[in-house]
From TrEMBL:
Its main location: mitochondrion. It is found in: Mitochondrion matrix. This is Succinate dehydrogenase assembly factor 3. The keyword Mitochondrion applies. It comes from Xylaria hypoxylon. GO terms for biological process: mitochondrial respiratory chain complex II assembly; succinate metabolic process. Keywords: Chaperone, Mitochondrion, Transit peptide. Belongs to the complex I LYR family. SDHAF3 subfamily.
Length: 83
């Protein structure tokens, strides 16, 4: 999962490198710092998204979460030998 997450992070950082709003920058960096801390172990498995954070997401962010979910499912299926 880390490889998939790392690729996603690289893309997100490229897309957000020109943002000027300090509140967006702080929120973005805080969330990715939390991600980095959690991905170091398996404690994140089975964890649910905070409903308050989901409520604040834009339609584009919800779409990105859906794409990430689909990529994780595909990765699991391929890793388990199911195609």
């Amino acid at each position: 999962m880390r490889v998939l997450g790392d690729e996603y992070i690289k893309t997100e950082f490229r897309l957000h490198r020109n943002i000027d709003n300090p509140a967006h920058l702080i929120g973005f960096l805080t969330e990715w710092q939390l991600y980095a801390q959690k991905i170091e172990g398996d404690a994140w498995k089975g964890e649910k998204l905070d409903p308050a954070k989901v409520e604040k997401m834009s339609d584009q962010q919800i779409g990105q979460m859906y794409e990430l979910m689909q990529a994780i499912k595909k990765s699991r299926e391929e890793g388990d030998g199911h195609n």
